[in-house]
Amino acid sequence: MKHQEVFRSRNRLAWFSSVALLYGSSFSNWVCAQDIELPRIDIVGREENALSKIPGTVDVINQKKMEELQPQSLQDVLRTIPGVNIRGDEGGLGSIPNIGIRGLNPSRSSKVLLLEDGAPIQPSLFISNASYYSPPVERIGGIEVLKGASGLQYGPSNIGGVVNYLSKTPSQGFKLTGKVGNYGYRLAEIEAGGKSSSNGAIGGVNLIQSDSSGYQGNGFKMYDILMKGGIEIAQNQWLSLKYTHYDNNINTSYVGLRPTQYINRSKVNPAPNDRFITQRNAVDINHSLEINPDTKINTLMYWSKLSRNYWRQSIVKRTQDATIFKACNIGADCLVGRNREFQMLGLDSRISHAYKALGIANEAEFGVRLHTESQINQLVSSKTLAYSGRISMHEENRANSLAMYAQNRLLLTKDFALTPGVRVESYNQTRSNVITNKSGGAKNVETIPQIGATWQLVPQAQAYGSIYKGFAPAQLASAIDDKGVDQQLAPERSTNMELGLRGRSGAFSYDSAIFSMNFSNQIVNQSLAAGISKANGGKSLHQGAEASLGYELGRGWAINANATYITVAKFVGTNSLGRDGNRIPYTPKLTSNLGVSYEKNGFNTLVSLNYVSAQYADSANTMVQNTIGTLGEVPAFATVNWSANYALNKDWKVFGVINNVFDKRYISSRSPDGIFAGAPLNFQAGMSYQFN
Asked: Structure pTM?
C-alpha cells in the first residue's frame, strides 16, 4: 500500500511538472497584452458602484485582503465576515465546510448556497446539497457574500445567503510557491499564464499539491488542477473555459474525542481507519455578449462530477475514555462505505437591460436556468480494511429543475431606488432503489417574491432594506422515503427582512444591519400514517444585528472590527425539531472579529482576534456534558492569529502565519459524534518567485 502511494505521488508530481513545462513553453511565446477580464457570473459585479445598487448586506474580500490574512482554508476567510459562523474543521484544512449564516445551523452548509464563479459547487441542489468539497484557498482570488434580497437571482437553498468564490486567473509568466508548517504540512504550487497580443486570448494553469499529518492524526493528501482561458470572439463578445480537478484523501471521521481523551490533550486519531475520499471534476463555459452599452447577455454552462467515498469502521461501544470499534478480519462486516457519486449539468442565462420609462431610469434583469442532476448512492460492507466489499444498498436518484427570475431596479429619484423581483422554481425528484426495485417521485413549484430599496441619504451614508421569501427544497431522502412514497413536502420557507446603513467618510467605513428570518414550515418527523412520516410543521425565529467598522489610522496603520449579535434563535412550538423557546444548536449569541494591520514598503502584517460565544450542541439545550461528549455546552472561545507578508522585490515574496498564537484549548464542536478540538498553535511559512 505504501509503495503504491509513493508511486502515485511520484507519477502525479511528474505529470504536474510536465503540464507546467508545457504551459510555460507555450506562454513564453505570448506577450503582455491589454488586461482582459474573463466573463463570469458575479454576485456583486465589477462596476465601480455595483455594491451600492444591492438592497442587501454584501461583503467582498479581494485578493489583497486574502493575502494579508494568509488563510489555511476558505473557512478561515469566511469566519472574518460578520454574520458567518463556521463549525469546527473535521480535517483536511477546511475541505469539508460547515458554514452557517445569521443563526442557521452550519452543518454541511446546507442552508447556504455555495458557488464558484457563479456555478454551484455543492454536489447537488435537490438530491443532497450537503457540502463535501471546498476549493483550495490558494487558487481563489476573492469572495463575495450576499445576505439580502438580491439572492433570488441565485438558488435554491439561499435562505441564509450566497457565497461566491472567485477563482484566480493565473499570473502572467511562471510562478512557483512553496509552503511548510508544523504537523507535517507541505504545499507546492505552480502557476503559468499568458496573454496574446494578436487574438485577444488569455490562459493559464494552476497546479497544487499539499499534504499534512494533521494535528489530530487526521492527515490528508490533496491535489488540485485549474486550467482557465478565454478569447475575445468579436469586439462585443467574449468566451471563457475553465476546468478543475480535485483529489483529496482525508484520514477523518464523524467520530471525535471522548471527554477523557480531550482532557488529556490526546493527539491520536480517534477513528484511525476511517477515510473521507473525494474526487471532483468540473467544467464551466461562460459567454458574454454586449448587444449595446445598455443590453448585455451572460450565459454559463456548468458540469461537475463528484465522488465521495466515506469509509467508517463500525462502533461497538462509546465510553468516557474512548470509542471501541468492531474488529476486522474476524469473518464479520466491520467497515461500511457510504459511497456516493453526483453529476450536475446546467445552463444559466441572464440578460440585463437599462432603459427609461415614464421619465424613470430602470435596470431590468431576466434569467433562466435549466438544471439536471443525478446521484448513485451505495452502502458497501467490508470484512477487512481493504476499502472495498459487498454492495448492501444501491440507489440511483435524479432531479431536474427549471428556474426563471425577473427583477427591475427603478431609480425613482437620483438617490432612491426600488427593486421588486420574483423567482419561480419548478423541480421534480425521483428516488429508485436498484436492489428492491422500489421507486417514487415528487414535484413542486415554488414562487419566491422580493422587494428591496436603497436610499442615498447623503454622500457618506446609504440606507438599504428588503423583504423576501427564503426557500430550501426538501432534499430527496426527506421528500421520498426508501419505499418510494412521496412525503408530499413543500419546500422550507422563511420570511426574511433586513434593514441596514452603510457608507464611507474619509478614512472611516461602516456597514450595519438588523435582520429577521421567520421559518413557518420546516420539515419535521411525525407519526407514521399511510407511509407519510414527514411533514412541514416546524417553526423557528432568528433575529439579530451585525455591524462592521474600518478606520485607516494613517502611517500605514488600520483597524477593522465586526460583530454579529443574534438575540433570538429559537424554536417556536414544540415538535421533533425542538422545544418551544429553546435556542437552536450551534448558534452563538455573539461572534466578533478585530484586526489591526500595518503596511509599508512592501511589508504588511495583521494581528486578528476571533471570538465565538457559548453554543448548545443539541435542541434540548443540554448544559452538562454527557459521558461520551456528544452533548453539553460548547464553551465560548477566542483565538488570535498573526500573519505577515514581505515583497523582497517585484519577483520574490515571503510570507507566514501563526494561528492560535496563545495555544488556546477549546471545543469547536460536539457534532457529529464526540468532541472536535480546535486547532492548537500552528504555523505556515513560505515563499514565491515570479518568472517573467
From this structure: 0.93
